[in-house]
Amino acid sequence: MWLESEALRVTVNPLIGGTITAVEHKGLGASVLGTTPWEPQTTPPESLAAPDERTWLTRYTGGWPILFPNGGDACEFAGVCHGFHGEASLAPWEAEVEAAILRLRYRFSAVPIEMRRELAVEADILTIRETVRMLGAQPIEVMWGHHPTFGSDLLAGPFEIQSGARTVTVDELYDPVNNPLRPGAGGRWPVIPGKAGPFDLSRPEGIVAASACLRDFDGAWASIRRLDHSVAAVLSWDPEVFPYAWLWYELGGTPEPPWSGKARLIGLEPNTTWPPNGLADARRRGGPLLTLQPETEIATTVRLHVFKPAGAVLGVDANGRAVSKSAP
Question: Which terminal residue of the chain has fewer beta carbons within 10 Å of its beta carbon, N or C?
Answer without folding.
Answer: C
